[in-house]
Amino acid sequence: AKELDANTDYYVELVAKGTGKSKEEITKDIRRPKYFLAQEAIDYGLADKIIEEQDVHFERK
Known about the structure:
The protein is mainly alpha-helical. The radius of gyration is 15 Å and the shape is elongated. 0% of the residues are buried. The chain contains 3 helices and no strands.
């Protein structure tokens, strides 16, 4: 249980730092499942931009 708590604290700290939100807000938000549409993830601070399908190129082997 201690390790899980330590990992959760670390995760909360990283997400708070990356999103600019408080640790308290992140802790509240991860207490329940939360799913984001692409724009919502950007608005929340988890993503920088939406990559369009035509902009993605894969090399076939």
